[in-house]
Write a structure and sequence with these properties.
Structural class: alpha+beta
Oligomer: single chain
Shape: globular
Largest sheet: 7 strands, antiparallel
Strand content: 25-35%
Low-confidence stretches: 1-6
Number of helices: 4
């Protein structure tokens, strides 16, 4: 398979990206193919492979620059939902211009799809749906559902109305996800732990949902405040049909 050098405006892009291996900290070069016509980005483990290792619908994914998390200035994270569970792949290129072109190719393909689906929408309205940065990421310590279990350090990602927690930042899928509905439906954040729980760890707070309560401890007062504000803002936002729990 020849490697094209077409720009992102063509609706087709082919090239090699460094991809983090599943269950391994190493990155290996993989052939990626983006097709706006097929609404897909796929990658191959071998150049001469007839079938891709994975094919991801462009309309289902989110692309975010994450240089600090990957440890490379050209780092990109691609996330999508598969059977209701978030999946992630972590990529980088040696050339900064190249990773920007991949990012723009994804956005441009999705822009064209949305333009057809919603012809009356403005460019600003469509652009807001192309990709989104994570609201907040960082380390928190998390207890179990009873609040008496050992607090374990977890990498947390607040992505819209989804709070995801990982054992380490570059895992392909989270250990758990919490959907954040609206406060009027019983979703809210409070300082500290509920009465009757064991002695509170420093900088603790609780996330309350109709299904379960979640207990966290931050590394500092500043981080505790920042996480509580971010989670409260998510719960304060009005619910829209596309926000519904999947």
């Amino acid at each position: 398979m020849d490697v094209d050098k077409q720009t992102y405006l063509s609706g087709h892009k082919t090239g090699y990206l460094w991809k983090r291996l599943k269950g391994d900290s190493r990155f290996q070069s993989r052939l990626f193919v983006l097709s706006e016509e097929e609404n897909v980005i796929k990658y191959y483990n071998k150049q001469d492979a007839k079938e891709p290792k994975a094919a991801i619908k462009l309309s289902n994914l989110n692309a975010v620059f994450v240089p600090d998390k990957i440890g490379n200035p050209n780092g990109l994270q691609i996330s999508w939902l598969k059977e209701g569970i978030t999946r992630n792949i972590y990529l980088y290129t040696d050339d900064g211009k190249d990773i920007v072109e991949w990012y723009n190719a994804i956005r441009h393909a999705n822009y064209n799809r949305l333009k057809v689906a919603y012809p009356g929408s403005s460019d600003d309205e469509l652009s807001s749906q192309l990709s989104r940065d994570f609201i907040k990421e960082g380390w928190l310590s998390k207890s179990g559902p009873r609040g008496v279990e050992t607090y374990r350090k977890r990498w947390m990602t607040l992505d819209g109305r989804r709070l995801l927690y990982f054992q380490e930042p570059l895992e392909p899928h989270p250990r758990g996800e919490v959907f954040l509905g609206n406060k009027l439906d019983g979703y809210f954040v409070r300082d500290g732990l509920p009465p009757g729980k064991p002695e509170e760890p420093p900088n603790s707070f609780s996330l309350i949902t109709p299904d379960r309560e979640y207990y966290f401890s931050a590394e500092s007062v500043e981080e505790q405040k920042s996480w509580m504000e971010a989670l409260k803002a998510a719960c304060d936002k009005p619910m829209y049909p596309q926000d519904k729990k999947k």
